[in-house]
Design brief:
The complex is a heterodimer of chains A (752) and B (619). Helix content of chain A is 19%, strand content 24%. Chain A is an alpha+beta fold. In chain A, the strands form ten sheets. Chain A has a five-stranded antiparallel sheet, with no helix packed on it. Chain A has a four-stranded antiparallel sheet with strand order 7-35-34-33, with no helix packed on it. In chain A, helix 1 crosses helix 4 and helix 3 runs antiparallel to helix 4. Chain B has 619 residues and is α/β, with parallel strands linked by helices. Among the domains of chain B are: 63 residues, no CATH class; 147 residues, no CATH class; 76 residues, no CATH class; 92 residues, 3-Layer(aba) Sandwich (Rossmann fold), CATH 3.40.50.10190. In chain B, strand 4 and strand 5 form a beta hairpin. Chain B is flat, with a radius of gyration of 33 Å. Classes of the chains: A alpha+beta (752), B alpha/beta (619). Chains A and B meet through helix 9 and strand 32 of A and helix 3, helix 8, helix 9, helix 10 and helix 12 of B. Chain A: Keywords: Nucleus, Repeat, Ribosome biogenesis, rRNA processing, WD repeat. Chain A: Component of the NOP7 complex, composed of ERB1, NOP7 and YTM1. Within the NOP7 complex ERB1 appears to interact directly with NOP7 and YTM1. The NOP7 complex also associates with the 66S pre-ribosome. Chain A: It is found in: Nucleus, Nucleolus; Nucleus, Nucleoplasm. Chain A: One of its GO terms (cellular component) is preribosome, large subunit precursor.
């Protein structure tokens, strides 16, 4: 109830001012004085404050905030009144004598009593009159009316009786009332009475003035003439305020000013200060800028011009340029920067129907961005026919013969992993993963003989000697020397003498882990091996068997074991040795040089050439292949081809460099096998894509001429099975025929 | 021992600087740097190795030549920009303190940069400048059509429209307009100035609004440069053709909407001889004739003879060496001033076709209907020597009104409406004039001759409007496609008709047919002859036999005749190096793309024609 003191005191002052006339009015009826003063507080609050407070309530839609303000202020007011009463009493007693602002009483002789009596003038109920005469039945005071919300009454009257809540209709009634009652729009809700009360004419006038932004009080004149107290005629001050004599500086010209001015004058004379230039016109003057010779500086490159418009950009293009629905949808689906064209062709039947192009400014802007933000590169435009890029090579037709069709097919039950062709080119042996080795004729494809070994066949190779005939089969940790059937007796005898001599050569001094075993003569048959070489334990499957051209030495590469798994076997001495004590990298392949005592060893990424007689490394070739799969040496011994699982084929000119002379990549899958033809200028490569590629490879004796490599034919016929295609290719010695073994179990013969 | 080489002291690391370091070096803001780059024409470069240029970092940055930045470092404009920065500080300080007179003083002495030296530097010769005004013209024409707002002061717009008008005036005066193309983006004009083709794009007359994603500051900086450039170029062009620059503007006419007509070209009373004539040009009645003009003239001559009919190949073969001759004749004349005899013949040769193309419309008077755009057609028609009038609703300054009797053509863009309330006089006038759609004017210019008015008459469906600039070589040509396709189509039509007849004929013809097929596929004269004889025996007339031959040839062509060759080619591709292979693939790709583009267009065309024919049959 006592929020702060300052507003209170202020209010109080106001209230004082307001109520000052009151004592004068109520002094005369002395006998009612007490009662009046008693009542006044309440009445005052009800009338004065009620009036002020109820203004916001004229608006039916006034929000609760206003209410709060009103409520908040009400206790204040009440307090005010409380204190006022006391003040009022005091003022009453002492001030009444000397104040002459109050209306003066007239003293007249009373008709009744005959005594003089003071008669005060009639009180006009105007702005500053009191409104105590108005009757307000509800004397509840300035309490928040919501306290009575749940009660049937709204307060108490002067006698302490309940003032019942007036009957209030529902919304419809209210509405009807507003329609029927002509004074409804000039009535406002009276909070204390809890009903609508018509506004008086004065109140309406105040409202009208407030709306009109006028002073609310009708009697106030804002344009009152000013009362002149100190100015105007006859009120001038004649006497000086100070008696001090006038200073000299009032009438002597200033020395310092003169100095300053002179300084400026001198500066102007000397031209240090220039009077401000005439404002130059903003328009630039143009002159013949190119009339004087230009500098020797080279001009910058002109910016590329934008592309000129094509037919599609026309306002009336031929109809075929108009996009179809699908094309339009595709164009709209693309991002603006991905679009090939920045507009969609559109046809307008007349020029007047062509609208403004909405991207005009954007395109100009993009062009400017290009001009100053895009790096420029001068490109040489190749104006050549792309077909000229393809190298001109002799036609394959002129390079016949070469294999170009499959003449016959021999089928294994499992993958035909390895094949070998006899040195005379009449027989083929093929081995599969089931351990079956078949011998068949090249000309007709008839199987002559079949051997069965235990485990996979890793490698097969026919001995290159022509005076005798046998072949070697490599299976798990063993090499079997097998003599084919139907040999002429002399050859058979010679072969048997070589492989199983009556007197064994002397055993080497150092015991070798490789055992050479010949079964007893009695158990010889065409089904079994005549000689078996047992490779050391856990050396795995021999991956490759390769013969020296003389047919005495043989090298094998096994998957596991020490010393890279490379073993060199000498048939006549029945002796095996490991050529390398230690070798870096896993050995993939080995090869004998056809003419020189050189030995090629292919590890995973390099090919090393060793001189066997001098026992030293000659060269390391770097084909740049990730994993070498195959390798073959040209019969001249000067060229080497290396194939890899990464589809590359490298041609090395051994005299030239240890980098490949040519790298070809044409297979779509890993290269599996490579083979040079011993007599014809041909080589072939097979791959996991099931294709065999035959090349013509002419090598010149002239060192200055590069070898000629011409692709001749792609032989297709093998099916790819489990990702494996053609596993091995071999050439027939005297014919341009090719034998290929595939993962599908077929061995094909390709004839010219 | 040699000198120790430190990393990053030579090569790309030294030659390139990143944008950030360039700004740091120039000690200016990014906005100022951008302004400088635009004005000076400095653009980023692409180093061969980004890593090497950026100290091993491969972050995406833009590189500039270190030398370019070094030149920028003592650029007067940069100095002015710095001064302006100081000025802006002083001004804001004065304003903040309320020192109004100081602020006014500062404002009066505001640093302003000029771009003359930059123009001279970027375009050392006049030809360089002319070659590069394409963008400038497009920009000026664009801004001339923009509404002014807070960012675009009216003075700027006014200056741009003035520059645009001056350019049009010059082109009209010198009759140097060559080609025009009405596109959906705007109107492309191509003029030939000093042997350089200048192409510019003018938007259609609509109010453009600047989109939000466009940086106006960049455009305004460019415009600043372009205005200066165009001013100098115009000065040179005007003075070289003996005119006063700038041409005085008649304010009253301009307010009346006279457009180009508000300017009046004034020739100099005492023409100043150019200080250093750079291009020695032959003059024909006050106009320069360049080698290109002559070539064009010859081309148009040969073009005429083509139209006349005659073996075109022969003509072309003859004209080629002539071109070569023409190339060097003017050079000879410049080196040897006495050999004027040859020049006169050249003049005589060149004068005829030149006048034909550039004064194409000189015998005609045009009247623009009020819905046609006056600025466009006034410019085009007047550039080709025609007279043009327009109703007062299109602006003031029309030399004659609609009732003038000299009017030969009315450019009208309205659908045809039957008018009943025509007076006799009006009808008579109407019959005397030709009412054509605007496209006729443009197509005439591009064709270099007056076309038939018939297809372009009012209310007709217009023939397609093609680009005069041509397309890349081997692109689909709608004009050629029309003729060739039509012949083939008719042929296939006939075939359709013929085939049922053939089936009716007896079986004996089958043998003949097979022989014929063999003949066609073998392309052998003797076997063809034999087949012909066989056909004669079978009683087939020669016409049908010919058709059969053609048909079977077509079929055999469709079959892969050169499959074997293709295979060989494919195999030979193995022997290409990787680099070559990639290049080949790229070229093939673009070739294939072009071919497919062409094929789709041709396919669409065929379909359209078929549809049309079907409609014609049914309807």
């Amino acid at each position: 109830m006592v929020p702060d003191l300052k507003p209170k005191s202020k209010k109080r002052k106001q209230a004082d001012d307001d109520e000052e006339p009151e004592p004068a009015t109520f002094r005369a009826p002395v006998e009612t004085l007490e009662m009046l003063s008693d009542d006044e507080g309440g009445e005052d609050a009800a009338s004065d404050d009620g009036q002020v407070d109820e203004f916001p309530e004229i608006d039916a839609a006034s929000d609760s905030e206003d209410e709060d303000v009103v409520e908040g202020s009400e206790p204040d007011e009440e307090d005010n009144e409380g204190t006022d009463e006391e003040d009022f009493e005091e003022e009453d007693s002492d001030d009444s004598m000397d104040r002459d602002i109050f209306p003066k009483p007239k003293t007249i002789i009373s008709d009744i009593t005959g005594h003089p009596k003071r008669v005060y003038p009639e009180i006009e109920p105007d702005y500053d009159s009191d409104s105590s005469t108005e009757d307000a039945p509800n004397r509840v005071g300035d309490v928040p009316m919501h306290w009575y919300d749940d009660l049937p009454h709204v307060g108490y009257d002067m006698d302490g009786k309940k003032v019942l809540r007036p009957a209030r209709g529902d919304e419809l009634d209210k509405f009807l009332q507003t329609v029927e009652d002509p004074s409804a729009w000039t009535s406002a809700f009276d909070k204390t009475a809890q009903m609508d009360k018509p506004l008086s004419a004065e109140e309406l006038d105040i409202i009208r003035r407030l709306y009109g932004n006028e002073v609310p009080d009708a009697g106030y004149d804002p344009y009152e003439p000013m009362t002149e107290w100190f100015t105007g005629k006859g009120k001038e001050e004649v006497m000086p305020l100070s008696a001090a004599p006038e200073p000299k500086r009032r009438w002597v010209p200033s020395k310092w000013e003169k100095q300053k001015v002179m300084k400026i004058v001198r500066a102007i004379r000397q031209g240090r200060i220039i009077p401000s230039k005439l404002k130059t016109t903003s328009k630039k003057e143009f002159y013949a800028i190119w009339s004087e010779p230009s500098t020797s500086h080279a001009p910058p490159l002109p910016a590329p011009k934008p592309r000129l418009p094509t037919n599609a950009e026309s306002y009336n293009p031929p109809e075929e340029y108009l996009p179809t629905e699908a094309e339009r949808a595709e164009w709209e689906a693309l991002d603006p920067e991905d679009r090939e064209r920045d507009y969609l062709p559109k046809k307008h039947s007349a020029l007047r129907l062509v609208p403004a192009y909405d991207r005009f400014i954007k395109e100009r802007f993009n062009r400017q961005l290009d001009l100053y933000l895009a790096p420029r590169i001068q490109r040489v435009k190749l104006n050549i026919d792309p077909s000229t890029l393809i190298p001109k090579l002799p036609s394959p037709q002129s390079l016949k013969p070469f294999p170009n069709y499959k003449s016959l097919k021999f089928t294994h039950s499992s993958r035909a992993r390895c094949i070998s062709v006899s040195p005379d080119g009449a027989w083929v042996i093929s081995g599969d993963e089931g351990g079956v080795v078949s011998l068949w004729e090249v000309n007709v494809g008839r199987e002559v003989k079949r051997w069965k070994f235990e485990g996979k066949i890793g490698a097969l190779e026919w001995c290159p000697r022509t005076d005798l005939s046998y072949f070697v089969v490599g299976i798990e940790e063993a090499l079997h020397f097998v003599v084919p059937p139907n040999l002429s007796p002399s050859v058979l005898l010679l072969t048997q003498n070589l492989l199983a001599p009556a007197t064994l050569p002397p055993a080497p001094e150092t015991p070798s882990p490789v055992k050479w075993v010949t079964p007893p003569t009695s158990s010889w048959s065409s089904d079994t091996a005549i000689l078996t070489v047992h490779l050391p334990q856990s050396s795995g499957l021999p991956k490759q068997i390769t013969w020296h051209r003389r047919g005495d030495y043989m090298a094998t590469v096994s998957g596991g074991g020490t010393q890279g798994g490379v073993w060199m076997h000498q048939i006549t001495r029945r002796h095996s040795q490991a050529p390398f004590k230690k070798i870096r990298g896993a050995v993939q392949l080995v090869l004998f040089h056809p003419l020189k005592p050189h030995f090629f060893v292919a590890t995973q990424q390099y090919v090393r050439i060793y001189n066997l007689s001098e026992q030293k490394l000659l060269k390391t070739l770097t084909p740049g292949i990730k994993w070498i799969s195959s390798m073959d040496v040209h019969p001249s011994g000067d060229h080497l081809i290396v194939g890899g699982y990464d589809r590359k084929l490298c041609w090395f000119d051994l005299e030239l460099s240890d980098k490949p002379y040519k790298i070809l990549r044409y297979h779509t899958r890993a290269i599996r096998s490579l083979a040079f033809h011993p007599t014809y200028p041909l080589f072939a490569s097979s791959s996991d894509d099931g294709a065999i590629q035959v090349f013509h490879s002419r090598v010149y004796n002239d060192l200055m001429t590069d070898p000629l490599i011409v692709p001749l034919k792609i032989l297709r016929g093998h099916t790819v099975k489990e990702g494996l295609g053609v596993l091995q290719v071999k050439w027939c010695a005297r014919q341009p025929w090719l034998v290929s073994g595939g993962a599908d179990g077929t061995v094909g013969l390709w004839c010219s | 021992m040699g000198r120790l080489r430190q990393k990053g002291k030579t090569g790309a690391a030294k030659a390139y600087v990143t944008r950030t370091s360039a700004i740091k070096k120039l000690q200016c803001s990014l906005a100022d740097f951008r302004r400088l780059c635009i004005l000076k024409g400095i653009f980023p470069r692409e180093p061969r190795s980004r890593k090497r240029a950026n100290k091993g970092s491969s972050a995406p940055t833009s590189f500039y030549y270190a030398k370019d930045i070094a030149y920028l470092a003592h650029e007067p404009v940069l100095k002015k920009l710095r001064e302006h920065k100081a000025f802006a500080k002083k001004l804001s300080r004065a304003l903040g303190r309320g020192e109004w007179s100081d602020a006014k003083n500062l404002e009066d002495n505001k640093p302003v940069y000029r771009l003359d030296h930059i123009i001279k530097e970027r375009y050392p010769t006049f030809i360089d400048a002319v070659r590069d005004i394409d963008d400038a013209l497009s920009m000026v024409f664009l801004f001339a059509s923009l509404p002014s707002n807070a960012r675009l002061p009216p003075s700027l717009i006014e200056n741009c429209s003035r520059l645009a008008a001056e350019w049009q005036l010059y082109v009209m005066h010198n009759k140097s307009l060559r080609k025009t193309f009405l596109s959906i983006k705007g109107i492309y004009y191509q003029a030939e100035i000093m042997d350089q083709t200048v192409t510019w794009l003018v938007p259609y007359q609509f109010t453009q609004s600047i989109p939000a994603d466009v940086d106006v500051r960049v455009m305004l900086t460019f415009l600043e440069l372009y205005q200066t450039l165009l001013g100098f170029v115009y000065f040179k062009l005007y003075t070289d053709s003996g005119l006063i620059y700038p041409p005085p503007l008649d304010v009253k006419k301009d307010e009346g909407g006279a457009g180009v007509g508000a300017f009046s070209l004034q020739s100099m009373s005492h023409p100043v001889a150019p200080a250093a004539p750079k291009t020695k040009a032959v003059e024909i009645d006050g106009r320069k004739v360049s080698g290109k003009d002559v070539r064009q003239a010859i081309k148009s001559l040969t073009g005429e003879s083509e139209i006349n009919g005659g073996d075109v190949d022969m003509q072309n073969a003859e004209s080629n060496p002539m071109e070569v001759d023409e190339e060097f004749v003017p050079q000879q004349s410049t080196s040897d001033p006495q050999s004027t005899a040859s020049l006169t013949t050249l003049k005589a040769l060149a004068a005829l076709p030149q006048s034909l193309t550039t004064s194409l419309f000189s015998p005609y008077s045009f009247y623009l209907s009020r819905e046609t755009s006056r600025p466009i057609f006034e410019f085009i028609v007047r550039s080709f020597g025609g007279r043009v009038g327009w109703p007062s609703s299109s602006g003031s300054g029309s030399p004659y009104d609609e009732s003038d009797d000299s009017i030969t053509h009315v450019i009208i863009d309205r659908p045809l409406v039957e008018r009943t309330d025509e007076t006799l006089e009006e009808r008579e006038r109407r019959s005397r004039r030709k009412y054509i759609q605007p496209q006729w004017v443009v197509d005439c210019i591009n064709a270099g001759k007056i076309l038939l008015e018939e297809p372009y008459a009012q209310g007709k469906n217009l023939p397609p409007h093609l680009s005069p600039f041509g397309e890349y070589e081997g692109a689909y040509d709608p004009a050629v496609g029309l003729a060739g396709q039509a012949a083939e189509e008719s042929e296939s039509e006939e075939e359709d008709v013929v085939i049922p007849d053939a089936e009716e004929e007896d079986v004996g013809q089958l043998a003949e047919k097979s022989a014929l097929q063999a003949a066609a596929t073998s392309n052998d004269a003797t076997s063809l002859r034999a087949a012909e004889l066989a056909a004669e025996v079978a009683g087939v007339d020669y016409g049908t036999f010919e058709k059969e031959v053609r048909k079977s040839r077509k079929k055999s062509k469709a079959a892969p005749a050169d499959g074997a060759e293709d295979g060989e080619q494919d195999m030979n591709k193995m022997m290409m190096s990787n680099k070559q292979k990639k290049l080949y693939e790229r070229m093939k790709y673009s070739e294939k793309k072009k071919a497919s583009e062409r094929a789709t267009l041709e396919g669409k065309k065929q379909q359209l024609q078929k549809q049309k024919r079907r409609e014609a049959k049914t309807g």
